[in-house]
Every structure is written in structure tokens, then in C-alpha cells.
Design brief:
The complex is a heterodimer.
Chain A (H helix, E strand, L loop, with lengths): L3 E4 L2 E5 L4 E7 L4 E9 L5 E8 L4 E4 L2 E6 L4 E6 L8 E9 L4 E3 L3 E6 L1
Chain B lengths: L4 E3 L2 E4 L5 E6 L6 E7 L6 E7 L2 E4 L8 E5 L5 E5 L8 E8 L11 E2 L3 E5 L1
Parallel strand pairs in B: 2-11
Antiparallel strand pairs in B: 1-3, 3-8, 4-5, 4-9, 5-6, 7-8, 9-10, 9-11
Classes of the chains: A mainly beta, B mainly beta.
Chain lengths: 111, 117
């Protein structure tokens, strides 16, 4: 069974700092991996989607990487802003079309 | 049951027909979410319920889609006049906390696979 772990569970950084969020998984037979952010009172917002054949995706200040062989994905946030404060979730879809979410990292960016 | 239950698990319908998808969340979970995933795509958020109210309906793709939740428990997602692009797996999830709370765990059902022919 796929296990998805996110470290750290919580992170607090000063505004302007670059940061990395980690997601590790136990089964490399994945179809795609997606990073979401979760804001209070809102549903999940998809940030980046990486297909199994891809190594990374970039959108603005965000960069997500995927290394299936090591069972890892990272989400890099450049020049963090207070508006980046949210819970960040990684989600994997495996080749059997089953869905697994990580436990989340709660990010606080201090002005 | 112990988990999120969805029905039907598979549905094949003709274009133009209406379909209803049902979700039974985990007992006591106040937050309920609907997502869909089309072939080759990531998860797409549709709607979120807190109790019986829906603070966020922003993900519903068109006015053919509607959802309701009664008694703070069961939810129904209705698609009217189905189109082929509606073919996807529709996932329901629930959690004890509203979204955005640290440590909030979201539990997913196994999905309802919809094929519109």
C-alpha cells in the first residue's frame, strides 16, 4: 500500500526566504503527482502537476521536482510571501488509479 | 462502514441523460469535498461543504453540475444533460476539520467512475 509522508509537518519562515517542502512515497508505480495548497474555508487548490515521465514543473515562484527512483518529490518556493501561508499537500495517483494524499505541511510566512 | 462510501462505483450513461452520484462520509466528519479526475489529468476540486452549507462552489464546471448535502451527512452530486467531457472519476472526501487546519486529514472514497457514451 502506498504511504505518503510529508516533512516537516509545520514550518515557519520569515518573509523573503526560499524554502523546500518534502514529500516521500513508498511505491514508485505512480501515474502522476500533484501539489496542492489548502486555505482555511476553501477546497484544495492545485499548484503543480507532474506526470510520471516528467522530472519537474515550474509555475511562477514554485518549482516541483519528482524522483521516482528515490520516492521523493520536493516543492520549492522562492522569495516566500505572507500570502503563501497555507497547508501544502502532495497527492499521488498510482497506476491503478488510486489516490493517496500526504499528511501536509503547514506553512507560516512571517511578515 | 469505517470509510467514505460512494455509489455507484461505475456508471455508463448516454449523452444527455442526468446522473446522480452519492457520497456517505465518515460519521462525524463535518467537511465534505467533491473532486473529479479526468483521464490524464490531476484532481480537480468541485465543491466543498461545511455541514449542509457550501462555502466554496467555485469548482463546479458549469450550471449542469449541482450538489447538495442533507443532515450534515450524505451528499449527492448531480450532473444534468451529461456530455462526453463529463467522463471522469468523481471522488468524494471528508474530514473532521474545515480545510486549511494544520494536521487535518482528508479521507477519500474509492470514487464513482462515470462514462458518458
Amino acid at each position: 500500500k502506498q504511504e505518503v509522508t510529508q516533512i516537516p509537518a509545520a514550518l515557519s519562515v520569515p518573509e523573503g526566504e526560499n524554502l523546500v517542502l518534502n514529500c516521500s512515497f513508498t511505491d514508485s508505480a505512480i501515474y502522476n503527482l500533484q501539489w496542492f495548497r489548502q486555505d482555511p474555508g476553501k477546497g484544495l487548490t492545485s499548484l503543480l502537476l507532474i506526470q510520471s515521465s516528467q522530472r519537474e514543473q515550474t509555475s511562477g515562484r514554485l518549482n516541483a521536482s519528482l524522483d521516482k527512483s528515490s520516492g521523493r518529490s520536493t516543492l520549492y518556493i522562492a522569495a516566500s510571501q505572507p500570502g503563501d501561508s497555507a497547508t501544502y499537500l502532495c497527492e499521488l495517483t498510482n497506476t491503478g488509479n488510486q489516490f493517496y494524499f500526504g499528511t501536509g505541511t503547514s506553512l507560516t510566512v512571517i511578515p | 462502514g469505517a470509510g467514505v462510501s460512494q455509489s455507484p462505483s461505475n456508471k455508463v450513461t448516454e449523452k444527455g441523460k442526468d446522473v446522480e452520484l452519492r457520497c456517505d462520509p465518515i460519521s462525524g466528519h463535518t467537511a465534505l469535498y467533491w473532486y473529479r479526475q479526468s483521464l490524464g489529468q490531476g484532481l480537480e476540486f468541485l465543491i466543498y461543504f461545511q455541514g449542509n452549507s457550501a462555502p466554496d462552489k467555485s469548482g463546479l464546471p458549469s450550471d449542469r453540475f449541482s450538489a447538495e448535502r442533507t443532515g450534515g451527512s450524505v451528499s449527492t452530486l448531480t450532473i444534468q444533460r451529461t456530455q462526453q467531457e463529463d467522463s471522469a472519476v468523481y471522488l468524494c472526501a471528508s474530514s473532521t476539520q474545515p480545510p486549511g487546519y494544520s494536521g487535518n486529514t482528508i479521507y477519500f472514497g474509492e470514487g464513482s467512475w462515470l462514462t458518458v457514451v
